[in-house]
Amino acid sequence: MHDDEQKEYLEEPLRLFRKKMIPKLPSNIQKRVIGEVERLEELFVDSRAPRFAIIGRRGAGKSTLVNAMFQAPVAEVGAVTAETERGGWHTYKNASQQAIMEVLDTRGFGEGDETRFNQTEEEVWQEALASRYPDAILFLVKAKEVDARVTEDIEQLKKLRKIIKKKHDYLPPVIGIVTQVDELDPVYDTDPPFEKEKIANIEHASEHMKRMLKKHLPEVAGILPVCAYIAFKDGEMVYDRRWKIDELIDFLLEQLPGSTWMQWARITQAKTIQSRIAKTIGKSASAITGGVGAQPIPLADLPVITGIQMSMIAGVAYVSGRKLDRKSMAEFLGAIGANVGTAFAFRQLARSLSKITFPVAGHAISGTLAATATWGLCKAAILYFIEKRPVHEAKEAYKNQSEPPTN
Ligand SMILES: Nc1nc2c(ncn2[C@@H]2O[C@H](COP(=O)(O)OP(=O)(O)OP(=O)(O)O)[C@@H](O)[C@H]2O)c(=O)[nH]1
Ligand SMILES: [Mg+2]
Hints:
Keywords: Membrane, Transmembrane, Transmembrane helix. The protein is 50% helix and 11% strand. By secondary structure, it is α/β, with parallel strands linked by helices.
């Protein structure tokens, strides 16, 4: 996602801060601040689409799960042939043709059809894994089939991890997913939230899968039961039987590297995820501005610091799925009544920051003040962009500034 707006609003302020501000900081502050800048760089600059390997037998619900996470019919459900893209990467793109998620297609997994492509499964994987590796492996088993023989599948999975470890020195976490739990008894209890009896059977199936996976793969990251069933008509969702998909999305976030978080939030459109990432951004930005503000700063440097706040606001807006442009940022600043200095610096930021003299004279800031102001802006941005609350609430949050949480 490296379009111009992204560079201008997310990356450029960080780059300027690194270049112009960091060298001026006393070493004790410098160290702390650099750590936080790196955190933001991981989120903003290194940002890329998350990559998964989704493993499971035919009909396990791999494509359906992808659609459930996207809330859109992006993957073909119940595809008739197993031949397309076997062993290759499938890239999901947004309307602007940017890659937003990549899935290593392991169709044909465990089907022993090695002759079809004159390539063994291992050869297919070696090829697919030459350039990229999955950040995480999702291992799907139908709830009704958890006691079928999955040992072979687990062996395959381990082989896949081994190749990745050897090639990329990375061991992707494995997440076991019990799919299609709605199919378990009692059959009349089809729609979530499920009744007691169904829940007990779901737990039973999950426990079974957990025991099995743990036995062969003790380091498995977690087991989650889900129902991913959704139906679309003409691109619109007409039926939604999803259960525990948000929990899965949340769990996956913890397994994914920070560089994929921004995209993950946008793909899944999950508000809880978006808020969590936004708060991470806000905490780093507050620590940076607070650290810098802890010592006297020449006025000429203020825009560099304001730039961090702007980068933060742009980050929150981006996470919410908004297009990054001047309009949405200006709208927000206007709505919360941020001071002209902030808005001014922001408008100029993309041009030459070094040439700007900050228009608000005598703007004395202290470390705490800078940190609380930044955190106030973050809270307001979360309410405005993510929670989509009325403007006056965002304004309140900005005015009632408090210290950022320490954890
Ligand atoms: N009831 C129910 N049906 C599901 C669920 N998930 C998937 N299905 C159905 O199961 C069938 C197979 O789902 P797919 O998502 O195509 O499975 P897949 O793993 O991608 O299959 P292949 O691509 O052929 O390997 C489809 O008819 C889905 O509608 C679920 O959670 N509940
Ligand atoms: Mg499929």
